[in-house]
Amino acid sequence: MSSDDEEAGERGGALLLCRAGPESVAPAAHLLRARMLLTGAGEAGGEWSVLVPEGGLWQRGDEPVDRVLTGWATALAVGAPWPVLALWWDADRAGFTLAAGFRRPVGYVWLADGTPAGEDEAMRTFAARLGLDPVHDMESLERLTRPDGGADAHARVRALVAVLARTGLALPVGLVPGASADRLHEVARARPDVRQIAWLGWRETLRVELDAVEDRVEHSPLGPWLPWSGSPRARALALAQVAAGLPLTAWGAHRRSAGWIAAGALLLAHGALGLSYELVRPRD
């Protein structure tokens, strides 16, 4: 690791929390084309996974960590039935971004000393999209939008994670918001269920995605929309994903945004899956 990457790891860190098990998250995570570690983060009764990016990935260009993580979260969520929560922090700020499907991501930011720098409405939207209790959970979230001289930005993010514990989220010991990226990576690597996420190439990634999706939703009511149905709706959805992915990828390339390039690439991949399914899985 270069000295620049080491410095980046000391300045900040990030976690991607997915409300699904690792077996569901892994195929989509490979499409991010970024080196990460994946491990479970859920208690009994609640399925969660956590992706730990390699230290310094977001600091190799000019983009701030929040923009890169927003792109990654959006990329994971657009092709999945589960939401993705990106937690991030650096020397000046900390915050989160929640992505769910094609809806506009919602997020909140705190300055280093814990001063709220977001909109209250964002917290209400956050609670609604995750199905949190509109009374008790919302009270806890609203406290995070008020001044508190005893809580810095890292403490605010940890308090947010504590609220999500009621949904079954249980971050592994040591994966603490506020820790350096290198420390997070070290902790995740020592987990017995850890999976290495890396780019496999388009052909292999497509096959992994097909296997996982077929197994997951074989009896789903969404069947007519799925690639292997061969229905007009499935083809229309695939075309729409390609049509949305092309300009998004181009826009990300123009902005030199790795996160948004990944989002566009994921849409393109899902669209290509639908359009080319019969070539990969010929019918009997």
Explain the overall architecture.
It is a single chain. The chain has 2 domains: 3-195, no CATH class; 201-280. Helix content is 46%, strand content 13%. The chain contains 10 helices and 7 strands. A 7-stranded antiparallel beta sheet has the order 6-5-4-1-3-2-7, sandwiched between helices. Helix 2 runs antiparallel to helix 8 (202-216) and helix 4 (120-129) runs antiparallel to helix 5 (136-143). The longest helix has 23 residues, at 232-254. It is globular.
User: Order of strands across the biggest sheet?
Assistant: 6-5-4-1-3-2-7
Q: What is the N-to-C succession of helices and strands?
A: HEHEEHEEEHHHHEHHH
Largest sheet: 7 strands, antiparallel
Specify the number of helices. 10
Key features of this structure:
alpha+beta; 2 domains; seven-stranded antiparallel β-sheet; 46% helix; disordered N terminus; 284 residues
Short description:
This protein has 284 residues and is of the alpha+beta class. It has ten helices and seven strands.
